[in-house]
């Protein structure tokens, strides 16, 4: 609630007046290219997960600075437009219900809102998550990925699935598998950051 009352502060350096200042935005490292995870046709990322990015992601997720997620989502949308064009639909890999309750928001959903705004794609809550969080699980469990099921059919469409950090790709793969089972023809991943 407090975040609604206070003016924005930069998620990188705390100066007031903006969710992300120009100096901090300029210091963010661009993403390297990586082959897409299984079940995705393509996967794009905006930033490399190094330098100031891990701290930025952490503060946006947990530190009450989620105001920065919408402009970052719009930047992800611009990247998508330049590389892939506008998709019909944009969805996200939902976080666990427990985390959503604790944080008061779903960071992937907020990023997807920015992507939708920038591209004109229709946002859709296409996925339901089963089971717990990826972080804190064993490597083997993480590689198996979380469980997702589709909430609706999206026959023949191109769908962009948004997540915050692309690490093993297991979350994106599991999300893409569920989307394909719902009739989606082309799945493009789009993440805020990728681990090199
Ligand atoms: Zn700053």
Offer a concise description of the structure.
With 196 residues, the protein is an alpha/beta fold.
Description:
With 196 residues, this protein is of the alpha/beta class. It has one domain (28-194): Rossmann fold. The strands form two sheets. Strands 1-7-6-2-3 form a five-stranded parallel beta sheet, with helices on both faces. The model is unreliable at 1-5 (pLDDT under 50). Helices cover 37% and strands 20% of the residues. The radius of gyration is 16 Å and the shape is globular. The chain has eight helices and seven strands, in the order ααβααβααββαββαβ. α4 crosses α6. Bound molecules: zinc ion (ZN).
* Order of strands, widest sheet: 1-7-6-2-3
Mean pLDDT: 89
Into which percentage range does the β-strand content fall? 15-25%
| Model regions low in confidence, pLDDT < 50 over at least 5 residues | 1-5
- What fold name stands as the CATH topology? Rossmann fold
The largest pleated sheet is described as: 5 strands, parallel
Helix share of residues?
25-40%
Number of domains: 1
CATH top-level class: Alpha Beta
| Second-tier CATH architecture | 3-Layer(aba) Sandwich
Which structural class do the helices and strands define?
A: alpha/beta
The small-molecule ligands in this entry are: zinc ion
Shape: globular
Our count of helices gives 8
